[in-house]
């Protein structure tokens, strides 16, 4: 029986380490970083000191949304906007429209999501998520 691809501990650790190292280059801009599996369950989380609660939760929601919806959160928000819809219509309070969550995919199979919250712009959140994704070598 063929085994489905999954996120390994080493991949998750490499992704988190890369994001933490990059985030610590600007300690005055605290962020939270999260990685979830293909079902949206948390597998890794880190937050910097003095980060407000919303940003902590938003990192989790961004990772979750990317994994569950199978699309980066910025693209997901654009799609909803173009349809004149909102996240509240999807019936899941953990789904967000905030940019900064990236889907983790290999050979067309969703492995999970990575999300960052805390920077003043969603693009900066996404950039740090991409650092983690790239470090996973998927």
Sketch the major β-sheet.
4 strands, antiparallel
Distance between the termini: 22 Å
Helix content: 40-55%
Number of helices, where a helix is a run of at least 4 consecutive DSSP H or I residues: 4
Secondary-structure-derived class: alpha+beta
Mean pLDDT over all positions: 94
| Strand/helix succession | HEEHHEEH
CATH architecture tag of the domain at 40-135? 2-Layer Sandwich
Q: Identify the strand order in the major beta sheet.
A: 2-1-4-3
Indicate the proportion of strand residues: 15-25%
User: What name goes with the CATH superfamily of the domain at 40-135?
Assistant: Haem-degrading domain
The total count of strands amounts to 4
At CATH level 3, the topology of the domain at 40-135 is Beta-Lactamase
């Amino acid at each position: 029986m063929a085994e489905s691809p999954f996120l390994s501990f080493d991949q998750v650790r490499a992704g988190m380490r890369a994001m933490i190292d990059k985030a610590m280059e600007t300690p005055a801009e605290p962020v939270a970083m999260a990685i979830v599996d293909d079902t949206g369950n948390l597998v890794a989380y880190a937050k910097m000191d003095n980060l407000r609660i919303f940003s902590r939760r938003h990192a989790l929601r961004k990772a979750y949304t990317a994994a569950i919806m199978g699309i980066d959160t910025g693209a997901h928000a654009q799609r909803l906007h173009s349809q004149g819809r909102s996240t509240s219509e999807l019936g899941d309070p953990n789904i967000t429209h905030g940019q900064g969550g990236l889907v983790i995919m290999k050979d067309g199979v969703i492995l999970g999501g990575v999300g960052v919250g805390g920077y003043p712009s969603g693009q900066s959140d996404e950039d740090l998520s991409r650092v983690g994704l790239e470090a996973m070598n998927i």
